[in-house]
Specification:
By secondary structure, this protein is of the alpha/beta class. It contains 14 helices and twelve strands. The longest helix is centred in the middle third of the chain and has 17 residues.
Length: 351
């Protein structure tokens, strides 16, 4: 192993450092770690073929020298960048923040940076983001769901860039996905309300993105099987989901259908807002009205009463999607191209 320290390494190559931008080079990292530049590069990319002891030496050299990979240089060397584009609908929704955090942490340890694109549930905006990011030839893509414009789908297919879809599943050949059945989850929470003796169950939803509509499908299926589905008990609002809208939807439902004995809200922030409105209006929950949400967002278990909901594994989805994408980017075979991570129905005090 080389006996050079970071200090004398800097002195050993002053010409190179001055001729360039002053950045520490991969060559210097390799010298400090006592490995070849190729081994150092593979270690930083997280390739399994590199021995753990060598990876530790390279990481120690990186820390000592303050090395920061040059994305442009890596892209020139490999025809791909060290960046992964991740497209999510919103950053204001804790659901996607949790997923994104898990993706970013997993990719960073493997030497990849994330390019975050926010689509705002707009197919045209997603298409524009894809066109922009694909110009830079990212190493991989993570996108939310399958509902996108034909042009956006064609861009992904023609790019040759490995792509993993999250929050939903598909069994189509050549498609990679990590998620769960939104429809099955919607049906399960509705069946849990039925099991508690509720029969006049309303569905209140906002945003109306594809996953919300799939939950509505599950709600309908459960009530149709029980013989008590009423189309008039669906209350859909295209506005963004929020606590305030949840309270407004509660009042709207009870004004239009006062006989309702339960409301399934498509997201926890709506349901949390409904619980706050019920307290303000003196509506007894769950005695007069059961309230259920979806996603088990922060604070749902602290509501009065604690909110019944569906716990979705968004952190695990992010980690599994990143792991799947890393394998695809390395050209490794996948035993499971479609990962269904399931969900959990949590019946708390609001039902």
């Amino acid at each position: 192993m080389s006996g050079k320290t970071p200090q004398n390494l800097a002195a050993a190559a002053p010409g190179r450092r001055r001729r360039s931008s002053g950045r520490v080079t991969l060559q210097e990292v390799a010298q400090a770690a006592g490995v070849s530049p190729i081994t150092a590069s593979r270690a930083l990319r997280g390739e399994r073929a590199v021995a753990p002891e060598l990876v530790a030496r390279v990481q120690a050299a990186v820390a000592q020298l303050g090395y920061v990979p040059d994305p442009a240089a890596r892209a020139l060397a490999s025809s791909r960048s060290s960046q992964v584009a991740v497209l999510i609908p919103l950053l204001s929704n804790a659901l996607f923040v949790d997923l994104l955090d898990a993706v970013q942490r997993s990719l960073l340890t493997a030497g990849y940076q994330t390019l975050i694109g926010v689509t705002h549930y707009d197919p045209a905006e997603e298409e524009a983001l894809l066109r922009s990011y694909l110009l830079h030839r990212p190493a991989g893509l993570i996108v939310t769901g399958f509902d996108r414009s034909p042009a956006a789908a064609a861009l992904i297919a023609a790019s040759g860039v490995p792509c993993v879809h999250v929050m939903e599943n598909s069994q189509r050949a050549g498609v990679y996905s990590v998620g769960f059945s939104q429809a099955a989850a919607g049906r399960a929470i509705t069946e849990a309300l039925l099991a508690r003796g509720r029969r006049r169950i309303a569905f209140a939803a906002a945003q109306l993105d594809p996953r919300t509509l799939q939950r509505a499908e599950g709600y309908r299926a459960a009530l149709q099987a029980a013989g008590c589905y009423e189309p008039t008990l669906e209350f859909l609002d295209a506005a963004p989901s929020s606590l305030a809208l949840g309270g407004a939807l509660l009042e709207r439902v009870l004004a239009a259908a006062p006989e309702v004995d339960a409301i399934f809200f498509n997201n926890d922030d709506l349901a949390q807002g409904a619980l706050l409105a019920a307290l303000r209006l003196g509506i007894a929950v769950p005695e007069r009205l059961a309230v259920a949400g979806f996603n088990d967002l922060t604070g749902s278990d602290q509501m009065l009463p604690p909110l019944s909901t569906v716990r979705t594994p968004r952190g695990e989805i992010g980690r599994e999607a990143a792991a799947m994408l890393l394998k695809l980017m390395r050209g490794e075979a996948l035993a499971e191209p479609h990962r269904d991570l399931g969900f959990e129905v949590l019946m708390r005090g609001s039902c």
